[in-house]
Structures are given as C-alpha cells and as structure tokens.
Amino acid sequence: MLHMLSHELECDAETLAPALPDTLIGEAIALLKDAGRAGLKLATAESCTGGLLSSLLTDVEGTSHVFDRGFVTYSKRSKCDLLGVPAGMIRWHGDVSEEVARAMAWGALQRSDATVAFAITGFTGKAGPTQEAGLVHMACVTEGGYCDHQLYRFGDIGRGATRVAALQAAIHHLRVAVRHPDLPSKSHPARTV
C-alpha cells in the first residue's frame, strides 16, 4: 500500500494548482506521504478557508486512506451543529478564538475516523470595528492527546492572500503534528507574518 501511495502522490494536485504556489502543493504532497507512512488519517474543520485545505488535500489522487473528511463550518451555528462546539463558548469567546479553534478540532476528531484533526477559524478580510483582519486561529489534535494551538496575524492583506497564507501555515502545522503525534499539548504566542 505504501508503494502505491508513493506512486500516486507523485502526481501534482490538479484542481487548485494554478492558484496556489508550487511549494504549497509540494508541502501538501509531503504531508500526505508523511501521514501515510505513519498510518495516520486526517480530518479538517474549516471556517475562514471555506474548505480550501480539504480541497488541497483531496486534489492529490489516491489519498482516501489518509484523508477522511473535511467539515466546512463557516457560520456559528454550523460549528455547533456539525462539530459540537458549545454555543455558550462562541458567545463568550467569539467564533474566532483559541477556545473555539480547539473545540472545532476536537469535534472533527470525535466525528470522524481520523487520528489527527486540524481546525482553522479567522478573519480573512475586513472585519468589524473590534475585529482584526488577518487574525487566524489554528488548532491540531490527535487521538493520542496532542493538542496544539497557533495564532497568526497575517495583517490586512486581503481575503485571497490571507487564505493562501493560512493554507501554508496549516500544512506546516500539520506536518509537525504528523511527524510527532505524541508531543505534549501547548499554545504558542501570536505570529505576525
């Protein structure tokens, strides 16, 4: 099976390839290979990226044994309905917060056959008067108990550029988790990109 995976992943991702940097596509392929070698299965829970991470990971043929599913939960209600994020948590912390990102990741893990789940929530464009454009929370969890959070401040660079930057950060973040699924839980200070 691993030989077949390596052969199938030599193909480039087709659908998103014209819109994404080649390095990002190469990193996504490397992530899928790493996960396949480790016997891990991935799931995603996406808000501000609208399913782009799932799309990138499924643009590579022959990866259904590595990628289980993706949840696109753009609205507050969908986060509650599909991922089990408590409505009170969203009211208290906001839907773009560390707490909600972590809850989204745990919800994706619990509602899938994945061993690693990744969540993204943020503001990709002009946000409200008290909200910061380009602020993105990401969380990664594993069935072994690893739970990591990253906060990124991409700045007001526009929706498309923020989404691509978020994809790059997500792939990097996932590669670390896939290589070290038993790392202790942690949270990192904000990164300004």
State the name of the first-level CATH class. Alpha Beta
* Radius of gyration from CA coordinates: 16 Å
CATH architecture: Alpha-Beta Complex
In DSSP terms, counting alpha (H) and pi (I) runs of 4 or more, how many helices? 7
Low-confidence stretches: 1-7, 10-15
Characterization of this structure:
The chain has 193 residues and is an alpha/beta fold. The protein has a single domain (2-180, 187-192), classed as CinA-like (Maf protein), CATH 3.90.950.20. It contains 7 helices and 7 strands. The protein has helices at residues 2-8, 22-38, 52-58, 76-83, 87-93, 98-110, 159-179; strands spanning 42-46, 67-72, 116-122, 135-142, 147-153, 186-187, 191-192. Strands 1, 2, 3, 4, 5, 6 and 7 form a 7-stranded mixed sheet that branches. Helix 2 (22-38) packs parallel to helix 7 (159-179). The longest helix has 21 residues, at 159-179. The chain is globular and about 45 Å long. The termini are far apart. Residues 1-7 and 10-15 have low confidence and may be disordered.
In short:
With 193 residues, the protein is an alpha/beta fold. It is built from seven helices and seven strands; from the N terminus they run ααβαβαααβββαββ. Helix 2 runs parallel beside helix 7 (159-179).
